[in-house]
Design a protein that fits this description.
Largest sheet: 6 strands, antiparallel
Distance between the termini: 38 Å
Radius of gyration: 17 Å
Strand content: 15-25%
Number of helices: 7
Length: 220
Amino acid sequence: MSSGDAAAFFPLVAHLHTQSEPAWCGFGTLVTVLNALDIDPGRTWRGPWRFFGEELLVCCKSLEEAAAEGLTLAEVACLAQCNGAHTRIENATAGGLPAFRETMLASVRAHHGPFVVANYDRATLGQTGTGHFSPLAAWHAASDQVLVLDVARFKYPPHWVPVPLLWQAMCTLDGATQESRGYLTIDKASEPLRPEGLAVLLAHLQTMGAHLCPPDQSGC
């Protein structure tokens, strides 16, 4: 930690969330990252507290569909953007490891983001399961390993993975899209995106009793 290669660990581990459904690794990862970025969800979670929970991430794809199918890389990016984040999506391709390494190193050395979310194939890492999402929190220079904060904590605790092996796991194909997996860089948006259809969604949330803030009021 004295090397500065674990600055991202502290905000991320403070908000590390265990996914509440087997296919909700994308949701669990976003809850971790959005709260670590201190993004205001614009609505309450429980009581007076405005804090992201999985049940608030209801744009782009329904919770029911996500529970059955999981989320793709693009869908996780969409959910992040719906909820006040700026995202950059990168599909893993041959020759892309140096760019990923540069992005990952910049991220783990940053206290306040942007944070990197990896979408990878578990089997490539010798783990059970297939596609998975989790945030990356630190880098160990001597062994060239990255710390994965696994949001399926009922299966695996945070663990170190060699960077080239993680890249190999991200280069695998997602069967739902027939595109390679990859990674997201997620930061707090200077002007949160309010995509088409979000007004309808917010109106629906109000009918369910959610307290919502007007888009121009962050302190209500």
